[in-house]
Amino acid sequence: MTYNLRFGELASLEELGECIKNENPDVVMLQEVDVNTHRKRAPKQNGKHFISELGFYTKMFSVYGKSIPYEGGYYGLGLLSKYPFVSTERILLPMVEAGREQRSLLTGKIELDNGRIITIASTHLDLKAPIRLVQVKYINEVLGKVNNPILLGGDFNARPADAEIAEGMARWRRSMPDDAFTIPAEKLCPTIVRWWLFWN
Asked: How far is it, in rounded angstroms, from Cα 158 to Cα 123?
């Protein structure tokens, strides 16, 4: 499962936790995760170590990766897993244009019950397509060095036909068709696909 929390603006920790428990995923990749921030627009998440509390609520192991300091705390990525983490790493993505928000990739190796190791990863790419292309290339370089299966999820801010997906992620297998709905909206539009889950 991959999900952009939108910094907890729309749902409480308990509501998100219940959603995760109902879906019962083995792993969850989260974006826009706040830790100890104080946003006026997100009182449900303010002052909380959100990923740790969400992990406790869902009875899953949790990992946090800071992208930027924000509003007295941090803003970044999270991973949840039913299986223990063997190692984790936060990797900063290239900043190819001054003044843009720092983006990152959070990876975690988990050990399955049979002893097999897999890597799970969460990312949230830039809003500008040329920057996303550079970031996707870098993610491919980094994850190309991993010698076990990888599950990559995130908010790519991109549509299926965009080069960063159609070309940049061509070697990856998609977990859903191009016309899958990934953004809740009053008027569903299948051409807007931001949240992706890939495996190799």
From this structure: 13
DSSP designation for 49? B
CATH number for the domain that contains residue 120 = 3.60.10.10
CB 68 within 8 A of CB 113: no
Which residue in the block uniquely carries the two structure tokens 């988990």?
A: 110
Domain range holding 177? 2-199
Residue 122 to residues 28, 99, 174: CA-CA distances in angstroms? 9, 23, 15
Q: What is the percentage of the chain residues whose pLDDT exceeds 90?
A: 55
E strands along the chain, which residues?
2-4, 27-35, 61-70, 73-81, 85-92, 104-111, 117-124, 150-155, 173-174, 195-199
Q: pTM value?
A: 0.88
